[in-house]
Design brief:
Length: 228
Amino acid sequence: MIYIGLPLTLALYLLTKKMYVFRRLPFINPVLIPCMVIIPLILYTDYTLQDYMKGTTVLKYLLEPSIVALAIPLYLQFKEIKKQAFSILFCCFISTIISITSAILICHFMGIDKEIAYALSARSITTPLAINTANELGGIASIAAAVVCLVGIAGSILGFPIMKKLKITDPKAQGLAIGSCSHAVGTSAAQEHGLTQGSYSSLALVLCGIITSVIAPSYISFLYRFLL
């Protein structure tokens, strides 16, 4: 796996992109399809996750500059975004409150342990922030990371079809919705729909991550005091 991890990942990614050109179906996703192939390969063979990670180290190093590159469309739309700063911040704040509250309430009434609830409360922000937030809250960081990936894939696949059904056609609203719920994976999908969607999704990604990191500990404590 050390030697085939990188070429296999790149081949699956390029194949998925080509498939999407011919059939624009939501589930033909460049994150989902490779995961569906690589995860079973690791689980049901003698290969290990550590072997795969060693083989794809170069992709890990490219991840950080690729995330930073999401700021480019944000910069291009900066003047327009500046005019709507308060509305955007308010929307991201409400989205964060809904995300945390829904996770805590569902886990509480289903009898799920607090450690898992804490991890799920950070599901809608990017992975590094989610892991840090989960650790700060006393949650299970590995669960937080896994759920963040699942939420990102789900948002990138289902986000735009659902908004189309609900007749949400404004590109700014679409971008904010995707970025606040599906972080970087959703933002990459938003980029494919247009510059405005990508810009506003990048902004929501950053704002929701910051807001969650700041308010999550005190807000979750408040929720549990209220529930108990």
